[in-house]
Amino acid sequence: MRYYPKLARLKLASQFTLFLSIIFIIGITLGGLLLSKALEQKAYSEMKYRGEMVMQMTDAVSSYTVQEIAPLIAQVTDTQTEFIPATIPSLAAKKVVDRFKHDWKYKDFIYKTATLNPTNLDNQADLFEAKLIEQFNRDRTLKILSDFRYLSGKKLFYTAQPLTVTDSSCLKCHSTPESAPKSHVEKYGTRNGYGWKLNQVIGSQIIYIPASEVFVNVRRAIFLFLGIFMSVFALVIVSTKYLITARVIQPLKPMAKIAQIISQETIDVNQVCILEHQQLKKIVKRKDELGQLGRVFQDMVSEIYHRQQQEQRRADELSRQLQQLQAETEQTIITQEVQEITESDYFQQLQQTAREIRSEGGTS
After folding, report:
1. Nearest Cα to 206, choosing from 258, 146, 284?
2. Residue 160: pLDDT band by 50, 70, 90 thresholds?
3. 334 lies in a domain?
4. What is this structure's pTM?
5. Structural domain count, the chain
6. 250-262 helix and 289-343 helix, angle to the nearest 10 degrees
7. Residue 161: domain span
8. 357 found inside a domain
9. pLDDT at 1
10. How far is CA 116 from CA 77, 113, 135, 347, in A?
11. Interatomic CA distance for residues 88 and 91, integer angstroms
């Protein structure tokens, strides 16, 4: 409330501009925050969808490798003496993902079968991945985990699911070095990738998606929205100010001038009529509230004009009557004075003297 006197000193158009600007600032702040949250959530959902899609693809490749490729190769090749990488499900899935990355949409995807005791040390789980595997071990109902992590200074979105030994055929290579094919032992040695058990969570399949580019796109979308919103709102402010000035403030000026003239002790009817003729006739043609107000002022001006004319006629009539009364009064006064003179003793003596003189003249 203490700012109201300062606000009251502003013109109406400036007040509207100020209020619209305040609303704009509040709106763009809230809108920007809500849009940012919405776009981030959309980006999160999009990355999660892509990660799960690639994960389903790798599951399909792994399953196809175990059920179709490995038995077929076993029929034509002695796996004891010859190591065939295509029979390893995780390796087959990785090869397919590498080919899948030829599409620019997936070029930065990273697929890893993070394992606590891997055959290939490239798949050794780091500390973060080991915690994910521990979560899957503690909660066997947990099917998938998605979130963000930083790796080598880069923000990555990951989708992880447990890697569980569900097929006993996996134990041919990973139970003990003695039961593993010779070609497998020659390739990977006897120290890593053994001791696995059926239904054991040995690791996690993880898809990493770079999040920085996604959030850059989110920020671009936000800036684009803010730019469009600011442009539209600036246009709204300019248009509103123009409409208020042209359609409200300017039509109010002649009515304010008429009201100011009417409020004076002496009303210049001619000036009021000129304003009414020049300005109000344009306003009264409008169908809105200002048109109604203009018609009220027009009726008021007409009423004042007719009243002024009536007063003028009454004043003229009173002046005429006053002059007539004054003339009659003067005549009455003269008559009374003459009567007083004629009735006075002196006048009577004069009349008597005059008669005597006339009588003497007639006798002689």
Report:
1. 146
2. very high
3. no
4. 0.58
5. 1
6. 20
7. 12-222
8. no
9. 42
10. 31, 10, 13, 158
11. 5
